[in-house]
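Structure tokens please, single chain.
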Amino acid sequence: MNLNYYDFLIVIGYFFILIIIGFFRIQKSKISQTDYILHGRKLSLPGFIATLVSTWYGAILGIGENTYLYGIQTWFIFALPYYIFATAYATWLSEKIWKTNLLSIPDIFRKSYGPQTGVISACLIFFLSSPAPYILSLGIVIKFIFNLDLIWGLLIATVFSTVYVWNGGLSAIVKTDYFQLILMFTGFILLVSYSWIESVSPIELFRSISYSHTDPLGGNTIQYILVWFFIAIWTIIDPSFFQRCSSVDKPENAKKGLIISIGIWFIFDILTITAGLYAFIFIVPENPLMVYPILASKVLPPGLLGIFIVSLFAIIMSTIDSMSFVNAITFGRDIVWRNRPKDAKKNPVYLIKRGLIAVAILSILLSISIPSVVQLFYTLGSIVIPGLILPFINALTKKNKAINHYFSSLWLCLPVIASFVWFCLKKFNIEFLPPIEPFYPGMLISIFFYLILIFSSKNNKLVYDSISSE
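Here you go.
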């Protein structure tokens, strides 16, 4: 891309302002883990909405690519399923999560199933919440725009997305997310508006494009669309959702904030899908993953192009800082700190900060090893999610029964092992395997464990411990 002098100034200014906002806070000689992880449980409703909305679109390049190729199908696989599960989360889980008064999802498993299961869940969530796919996305954007080697793009993406989190934790993330939210909407409003000026109105655009791009299925089967509904179950076990709901000042604000956020997501989805449809009539890219920046370079004047570029940075970086933070909490607090009894009374914040470094290094290595955003999402989600969903829901909704820790550990491990083995066998093209995705064998095993739990009596030692053993 040929960037103007003003565009470069805007990009440099964006990084400078982001760091200033992130570091500007009242210094404390000592910060508690509740303050660092949960903003002291004082997150306001506007702050809750801003940080939740802005951290939800790290895969923005994939949205552009899918819209360019398949049209409005994007809304039915990347938007509608997530609205449904976010609504379910708001209705049944958000207030329950706030009332647990716990700091992380592994704390839920630890309290319900014991220390062993708590550590196992932390290890699974560590892989599930990896920021690697988003770091890779931003690295690819930086490489494309500035013609840098991918490794430099990955390093820039990692450093500038996490450096301010070290000092301020969730408080710093929330403050920067206000800024990121404004930028993400500004950039796409500009892109759609100038595309409109250069061609036709969005209504005429929709009427004029081919049926392949107005077909809700996008030329695929209903079965294909349903698969994406299963993938959207990720929402239920999303550590960022849990963290925000635990951080808000009042339980009713968690529910209210989620409902409002869904409305804002809907508006932004309309903007991104409309921009993707404009790209379909304007450009013929070599790589559909880059349709948004290519369209922007075609229709936006100097200066405004710079604003759109930083809006893309804002969308992805707001996801990277959030996922890096929850990943560092999982690694530093829920794995390392929990396995060091001598440090049990120490404040784990110093371990979380060290975890940020470890997460950054591991994410860069993972991005280099699997240089495909889609493949990273697919691999991590389809293998790990089956082991976490039902045990997590059960932990929040079950009656007061002490589940045997052997049973609960197997409930987490066996579905993940089954999905992983299935994934590996598919890689070797084993012919006798039925054509189903790795997600399903693991999920069937998890459902089997859940049915055992439902139909077991209180005195069944295979499943339940006696109340006196708690």
